[in-house]
Amino acid sequence: MRWMYLGLLAIACGGDDFQPGPGGGTGGGESGNWQDLSVSSSATLNAIYVGGTGAFIIGDSGTAWDVAPGLSSPMTTGSTVAMTGVWGTGAGPTAQLLAVGYVGSVFERAGRTWALQDHPALGTANLEDIDGDGEDFTAVSSTGIFRRQGGSWSFETGQGGNLRSVFVEDNGDAWAVGDGGSIVRRESGIWYAVDSPANVDLRGVHGNGEHLVVVGHGGTLLQWDGREFIAHSQRIQVNLQDVWMAPSGVAFVVGNNGTVYRWNPSASGGVQGTLTDISADTSSHLYAVAGSDDRNVWTVGARGTVLRLRPQ
User: Fold this and answer.
1) Which residues contact residue 49 at a Cβ distance below 8 angstroms, ignoring those fewer than 6 apart?
2) What are the CA-CA distances from residue 268 to residues 211, 264, 271, 274 (Å)?
């Protein structure tokens, strides 16, 4: 998914207080396929944006970190609310980030400065996720879907119920998923419900314009075949929490107890594709996954867990 969110006044990034990673008490260990870059925090980490060789991570209680291999820096947010979703572009100190969270919180970062945006249209909605293209953003919540165009947020629809994840396509069309198997789609500005073969809580949706994958509780993994969603035939025995798809079409799925799967689209064009277990050696639940390509993938989760895929 992205970056997560807060609810107070303007904030400044805690810029130069870097802490060592490997050997320094904030990660750096070995975890099979994964490099351990965990941070010194007991907070649950909910969302991540990957830019270049580093990542920006947000979580509960206003937690925010700037992490790169060997270095991790906590970022001051001035908030104690849950931060839940993030969108970003660029890398390092010049990365631009837009984060959302509970109580209608939206923060924007440019360079090393954060600012809380005042948007009355959001009210006290608990925002769960955000996606967009830098000018046009969509955020989902427990009370509906909001859209920002021209710098202003407005309420789009209450359709879909308690939504947890959103993916916006290059043309502005979008998908959102949530509790009770809810799936909604926006085409040409109109939202409508899409039939789901799984009546479980759905937690993540992502695609690359050609493929689209949805994941959720009970090991649910759904793939869009252009007309309907198909449940993957391979059973996964844990709750899945997020999915991120690289531009190549390779997707990474994360969930409880360190579960990670790599999904490769079928070479024959079939919808099922292949799932490979690349789980991490951790008991921590993993709540978000993101990357820049299928060789630079990160995942975050409970108790400050931060893992980066080792290049194969």
Assistant:
1) 2, 3, 55, 56, 86, 87, 88, 95, 97, 290
2) 14, 11, 9, 11
Tell which residue, 58, 75, 67, 57, has the closest CA to residue 114.
75
Cα angle 159, 163, 167; round to 5: 100
d(C-alpha 253, C-alpha 262), whole Å: 6
CATH numeric code, 4-309: 2.130.10.10
Q: Are 99 and 106 in contact (CB under 8 A)?
A: yes
Which residues make Cβ contacts (< 8 Å) with residue 8, sequence separation at least 6? 77, 78, 79, 116
CB atoms within 10 A of CB 187: 12
Which of the 8 DSSP states describes residue 109?
E
Over residues 97-148, the pLDDT tens digits come to 999 999 999 988 866 666 778 899 999 999 999 999 999 999 999 999 999 9
pLDDT in tens, 203-255: 999 999 999 999 999 999 999 999 999 999 888 999 999 999 999 999 999 99
* Cα separation, 131 vs 163, whole angstroms: 13
Q: Is 180 helix (H, G, I), strand (E, B) or coil?
A: helix
